[in-house]
């Protein structure tokens, strides 16, 4: 892969002292950051931070440059792709699935550049917004930002959006080892290509799984996304404001997809290239899977003639489990080991889209190729047999199955049954300090964004495709604040947040309630969140992602098609909910069975304002999200003094000009006025302005 991009070379230049923002702020105690005040070596991240991690070696500072651009797949950079397959691998060529469409890229790569560092390295990413009219932010999915909560990249929660032409320097420590990813956290940019791997490695001695694999190669990272044939904003708008659907037709694996065929000379059919994963017979390989998906399309993956041994999820190690297939949901990551112990051959890797991608809708699937060494094959050689949607599945034990819970049987295993290698901690205490139900579904509401009664209210339509159901947490749609909560926390007013305790549920079941949905959790409380997917409307699936933490997944069950919080509560009181409080897996993104619940636990030890949301972009963007405030404002780290600010500008229109503060440049205004007047008179003289 071409990973050069635009990179600033600070190769081996020693830098000393305070590369980090000094933590001085309005009366908030200075926190000791002595542990990160080391003399880092500033490296060009793309080439030199990608290294073997050695125990005892000091961390380094890795610098990357991200140019966020609106771009195009199968652009002129692709010349004769796919008729000449070599052209598809040219620099700046994004072959995609063969659709020519607008995309959003980082350094004209899709997926974007890989950030690969060792644990505790400092990562510095200059994100330059080269889009003319859209703002952006970047989120480092899986990193907890404990030292730098204001680097979490959530617009209006931790920072202001980065304006067009501006550059924002993210600086954070890669504390969470494992397979993660970075992605834009604004609008539909991730859906259109603004995502890439973030791999944090550890020394071999610190990896409990190192004895069971031989290689952990950059080439074996598998980034999956569901993919559309047009800009996803187009799909979003036509689905939300008209009768079009929101189902992704295909998938991309590392930016490649065989979706269309192309007719070449002599009636020869050619395809876009597929992702290829090369292995040498006799060795065991660690693969890292990232689901960057944006729509309701869980993806089942399997490799023909091989089993996979799943060893970690969302960066946290689990006891290895051998399986045939793995289901991933948007935002999740899994690492597995595969043993190249079969005949030297080409094998299909099958990716099957579920839910909105299944046989009822688009039958979206994709393939990649597992290629053994010594075959003398080209990009045009494929494994035997054709893959279509109906045979995109391999039978056998499945990990993380769709809409299944701990009622697991021999054919599938659900998340709480995986065993964390981190053992027990006090988040798994018998009773939590703070328990909170978050129930959701799609509701038939006159959501003012999409249905305006009496003009075009929800019930004005009989055609269900014209009825937009609103996904909400606890009957509330999140309205994002006008300024970032964490970095401008002094502007937060009392009573600014709403939640099910402050709202009248009866009202919110009939009317569309939209406000700054937030809950407040005491610092260091042991928290239990119970997600209830009521399941009345549709068969849906919402992956839940919490920023700033990973949580234990202690229970999961599918109860039926229609479920209420009261029923789950009753079940719990009767002792019918089985919680795994021994060593359940640690995750930051988890599925909830439709018509069921998922229960997670964490210790609220990371103060801040953290976003909790459905990881499907269309849902999060229309309010299936909330704020989790952990601790008091004083508990949170202060932001750097010169951190960018934003917000409304609403001066009093009745205030006399004299009341406007003179200090801030009235002189300059006068000069400008004189300049404008003389410019206008000059233009009049030159007849550049016409009067009508
Ligand atoms: C920071 O650490 C130094 C040395 O360990 C200690 O003397 C000092 O009191 C600490 N300051 C704060 C604010 O904790
Ligand atoms: C890391 O370096 C290896 C060897 O130089 C290269 O093959 C690989 O692509 C690099 N990986 C990344 C993530 O840059
Ligand atoms: C291509 O296909 C067309 C229609 O099926 C057929 O008439 C023609 O002979 C084919 N050409 C070649 C070169 O095979
Ligand atoms: C894969 O397994 C199938 C079924 O067991 C077998 O028929 C086939 O020959 C195997 N493929 C290869 C390339 O070994
Ligand atoms: C590899 O394949 C090419 C074309 O198919 C052929 O010309 C060449 O001789 C082959 N090389 C070996 C070592 O088999
Ligand atoms: C496990 O449960 C599923 C769904 O209820 C069922 O289809 C399957 O046959 C069961 N498998 C076994 C081995 O019991
Ligand atoms: C929509 O429904 C409302 C009643 O809820 C009705 O008053 C209104 O006339 C309807 N509008 C149209 C355009 O049918
Ligand atoms: C909630 O609203 C309903 C209908 O508007 C009203 O009857 C009820 O008293 C309200 N409940 C509370 C607790 O305010
Ligand atoms: C679930 O609720 C839906 C919508 O209210 C209703 O149409 C359906 O009959 C219910 N299903 C069951 C099994 O109760
Ligand atoms: C004007 O200045 C005064 C005193 O410096 C300050 O208190 C006030 O908030 C300022 N007003 C505006 C609109 O900036
Ligand atoms: Cu959702």
Automatic annotation (TrEMBL):
<dbReference type="InterPro" id="IPR011706">
    <property type="entry name" value="Cu-oxidase_C"/>
</dbReference>
<dbReference type="Pfam" id="PF00394">
    <property type="entry name" value="Cu-oxidase"/>
</dbReference>
<dbReference type="InterPro" id="IPR008972">
    <property type="entry name" value="Cupredoxin"/>
</dbReference>
<protein>
    <recommendedName>
        <fullName>Multicopper oxidase</fullName>
    </recommendedName>
</protein>
<comment type="similarity">
    <text>Belongs to the multicopper oxidase family.</text>
</comment>
<dbReference type="InterPro" id="IPR045087">
    <property type="entry name" value="Cu-oxidase_fam"/>
</dbReference>
<dbReference type="GO" id="GO:0005507">
    <property type="term" value="F:copper ion binding"/>
</dbReference>
<keyword id="KW-0186">Copper</keyword>
<feature type="domain" description="Plastocyanin-like">
    <location>
        <begin position="496"/>
        <end position="632"/>
    </location>
</feature>
<dbReference type="Pfam" id="PF07732">
    <property type="entry name" value="Cu-oxidase_3"/>
</dbReference>
<dbReference type="GO" id="GO:0006826">
    <property type="term" value="P:iron ion transport"/>
</dbReference>
<feature type="domain" description="Plastocyanin-like">
    <location>
        <begin position="92"/>
        <end position="203"/>
    </location>
</feature>
<dbReference type="Pfam" id="PF07731">
    <property type="entry name" value="Cu-oxidase_2"/>
</dbReference>
<feature type="domain" description="Plastocyanin-like">
    <location>
        <begin position="221"/>
        <end position="374"/>
    </location>
</feature>
<feature type="signal peptide">
    <location>
        <begin position="1"/>
        <end position="17"/>
    </location>
</feature>
<dbReference type="GO" id="GO:0005886">
    <property type="term" value="C:plasma membrane"/>
</dbReference>
<keyword id="KW-0560">Oxidoreductase</keyword>
<keyword id="KW-0479">Metal-binding</keyword>
<dbReference type="GO" id="GO:0016491">
    <property type="term" value="F:oxidoreductase activity"/>
</dbReference>
<keyword id="KW-0732">Signal</keyword>
<dbReference type="InterPro" id="IPR002355">
    <property type="entry name" value="Cu_oxidase_Cu_BS"/>
</dbReference>
<dbReference type="InterPro" id="IPR033138">
    <property type="entry name" value="Cu_oxidase_CS"/>
</dbReference>
<dbReference type="InterPro" id="IPR011707">
    <property type="entry name" value="Cu-oxidase-like_N"/>
</dbReference>
<dbReference type="InterPro" id="IPR001117">
    <property type="entry name" value="Cu-oxidase_2nd"/>
</dbReference>
């Amino acid at each position: 892969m071409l990973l050069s991009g635009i990179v600033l070379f600070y190769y081996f230049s020693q830098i000393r002292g305070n590369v980090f923002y000094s933590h001085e702020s309005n009366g908030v105690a200075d926190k000791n950051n002595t542990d990160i005040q080391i003399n880092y070596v500033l490296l060009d991240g793309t080439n030199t931070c990608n290294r073997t991690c050695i125990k005892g070696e000091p961390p380094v500072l890795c610098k990357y440059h991200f140019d966020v651009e609106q771009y195009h797949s199968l652009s002129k950079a692709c010349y004769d792709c796919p008729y000449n397959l070599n052209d598809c691998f040219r620099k700046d060529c994004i072959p995609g699935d063969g659709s020519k469409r607008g995309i959003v890229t980082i350094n004209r790569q899709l997926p974007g550049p890989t950030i690969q560092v060792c644990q505790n390295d400092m990562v510095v990413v200059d994100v330059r917004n080269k889009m003319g009219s859209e703002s952006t932010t970047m989120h480092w999915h899986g990193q907890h930002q404990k030292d730098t909560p204001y680097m979490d990249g959530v617009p209006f929660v931790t920072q202001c959006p980065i304006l067009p032409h501006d550059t924002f320097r993210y600086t954070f420590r890669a504390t969470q080892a494992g397979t993660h990813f970075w992605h834009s956290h604004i609008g539909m940019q991730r859906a259109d290509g603004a995502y890439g791997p973030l791999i944090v490695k550890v020394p071999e001695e610190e990896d409990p799984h190192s004895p069971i694999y031989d290689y952990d190669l950059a080439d074996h990272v598998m980034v999956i996304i569901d993919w559309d044939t047009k800009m996803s904003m187009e799909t979003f708008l036509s689905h939300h404001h008209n009768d079009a659907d929101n189902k992704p037709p295909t998938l991309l694996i590392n930016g490649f997809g065989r979706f269309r065929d192309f007719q070449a000379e002599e009636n020869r059919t050619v395809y876009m290239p597929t992702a290829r994963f090369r292995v040498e017979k006799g060795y065991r390989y660690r693969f890292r899977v990232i689901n960057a998906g944006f729509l309701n399309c869980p993806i089942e993956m399997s490799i023909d003639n091989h089993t996979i041994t799943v060893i970690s999820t969302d960066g946290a190690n689990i006891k290895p489990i051998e399986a045939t297939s793995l289901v991933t949901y948007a935002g999740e990551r899994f690492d597995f080991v595969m043993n190249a112990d079969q005949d030297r051959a080409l094998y299909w890797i099958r990716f099957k889209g579920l839910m909105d991608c299944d046989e009822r809708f688009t039958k979206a699937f994709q393939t990649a190729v597992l290629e053994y060494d010594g075959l003398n094959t080209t990009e045009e050689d494929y494994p035997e047999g054709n893959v279509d949607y109906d045979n995109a599945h391999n039978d056998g034990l499945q990990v993380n199955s769709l809409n299944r819970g701990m009622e697991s049987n021999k054919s599938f295993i659900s998340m709480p049954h995986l065993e964390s290698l981190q053992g027990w901690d006090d988040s798994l205490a018998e009773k939590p300090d703070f328990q909170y139900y978050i129930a959701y579904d799609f509701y038939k509401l006159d959501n003012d964004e999409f249905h305006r009664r009496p003009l075009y209210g929800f019930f004005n339509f009989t055609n269900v495709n014209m009825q937009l159901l609103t996904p909400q947490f606890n009957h509330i749609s999140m309205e994002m604040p006008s300024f970032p909560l964490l970095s401008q926390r002094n502007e937060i007013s009392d009573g600014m947040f709403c939640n099910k305790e402050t709202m009248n549920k009866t009202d919110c079941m009939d009317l569309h309630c939209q406000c700054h949905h937030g809950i407040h959790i005491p610092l260091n409380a042991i928290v239990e969140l119970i997600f209830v997917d009521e399941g009345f409307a549709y068969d849906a699936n919402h992956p839940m992602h919490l920023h700033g933490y990973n949580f234990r997944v202690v229970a999961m069950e599918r109860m039926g098609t229609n479920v209420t919080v009261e029923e789950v509560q009753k079940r719990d009181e009767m002792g019918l909910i089985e919680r795994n409080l021994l060593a359940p897996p640690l995750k930051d993104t988890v599925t909830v069975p439709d018509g069921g619940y998922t229960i997670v636990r964490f210790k609220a030890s990371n103060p801040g304002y953290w976003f909790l949301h459905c990881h499907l972009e269309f849902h999060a963007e229309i309010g299936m999200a909330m704020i989790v405030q952990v601790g008091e404002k004083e508990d949170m780290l202060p932001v750097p003094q010169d951190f960018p600010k934003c917000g409304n500008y609403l001066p009093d229109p009745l205030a006399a000009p004299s009341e406007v503060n003179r200090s801030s440049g009235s002189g300059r205004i006068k000069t400008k006025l004189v300049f404008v007047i003389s410019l206008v008179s000059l233009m009049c003289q030159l007849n550049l302005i016409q009067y009508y």
